[in-house]
Design a protein that fits this description.
Two copies of one chain form a homodimer.
Chain A: H1 7-18, H2 24-31, H3 35-47, E1 51-58, E2 67-75, H4 80-92, E3 96-102, E4 108-114, H5 117-128, E5 134-148
Antiparallel strand pairs in A: 2-4, 2-5, 3-4
Helix pairs in contact in A: 2-3
Chain A binds a DNA duplex through helix 3.
Pfam family, one (chains A, B): AsnC_trans_reg
GO cellular component, one term (chains A, B): cytosol
Keywords (chains A, B): DNA-binding, Transcription, Transcription regulation
DNA sequence: GTTCATGCGCAAGTTGTGTGCAAACGACGG
DNA sequence: CCGTCGTTTGCACACAACTTGCGCATGAAC
């Protein structure tokens, strides 16, 4: 009934993740289908959860957000309660773009975007370090960004 | 003449980066302006580079991409030529979502998304390590993703 | 060979977008 | 205090895009 992506679906997903401003007509011409089919397939792809949402990709530079940093956080005593507080804190921080719990010697990696180094310092010293759970914080700053497209590779295991 | 974002512009940017499927009419009602104004402002925001592009945000899980990893790469002899090759290689690898040159003891951080650990291993052993420039590779795998919205914080230094 | 399910394009109805226009507003100078 | 000018707004309309019903083609099951 549903599921299982064919060749057309993958092309639609690929086109939309690179440029969601494309009209159905554009995509139709691109992959050799009619606009109405694109519309129907797109609805299905949204309903089945392949497309999570549509986003405008803003320019950090234009908005004065010059500093991107990765911050590794190590928790001390892994008390349930303190860890929970830490996670909620992180979710509520607008400067944090991504947060993952990691394997290896660091418990969390945070991707942080701020206007300048002073703001980064403020985030680390005022928000992160005062947390009871936090034992250690190591930050590394992105000097140059080679690639930042966040495009998922779509060629795996399909038609 | 141009530049300088007012309160309305920030609200529009905020709404669109969270959900680009909103119509001008939706945003108009949200922030108390007419749809035509949203249209005009949006055009300006695009022209002035605040909005880079529109993207469909796909679900890695739905697409069978279960493994996200951060890979730290250290280059050996920093020969200009080998470094250049390394950067081009990275740009061409579809599994690499982000790549930054970093301050600190690691030269590059790569965000990599693949279907499984085997695929990660393949990327590291077949693509990364054989590079002449590469001296050392350390990878850390995301066990749980707390946050992954990539929403820029918009409240800095404006009206 | 018939039936059924699926996917297709076309065309029509609906919804959304963008521009001309006139009015409102604010800044500035007389 | 008032007029002028530039900017921003809402409205209305023309245009563009989206979506859905429909009939047809294709291919699998029996």
């Amino acid at each position: 009934m549903t599921d299982a992506l064919d060749h057309f679906d993958l092309k639609i997903l690929g086109a939309l993740q690179a440029n969601a401003a494309l009209t159905n007509q554009d995509i139709a011409e691109l992959i050799g289908l009619s606009a109405s089919q694109i519309s129907r397939r797109r609805q299905r792809l949204e309903k089945d959860g392949y497309i999570r949402r549509y986003r405008a990709d803003l320019s950090p530079q234009a908005l004065g957000l010059a500093v991107t940093a990765y911050v590794g956080v190590t928790l001390g005593a892994h008390s349930r309660e303190n860890a929970r507080k830490f996670r909620n804190m992180v979710k509520a921080m607008p400067e944090v773009q991504e947060a993952h719990t990691m394997t290896g010697d660091v418990d969390y990696i945070l991707k942080i975007v701020v206007p300048d180094l002073q703001a980064l310092s403020r985030v680390i010293n005022d928000d992160l370090l005062p947390q009871e759970a936090v034992q250690n914080v190591r930050s590394s700053i992105a000097m140059e960004t080679l690639k930042d497209d966040n495009l998922l590779p779509l060629r795996y295991g399909q038609t």
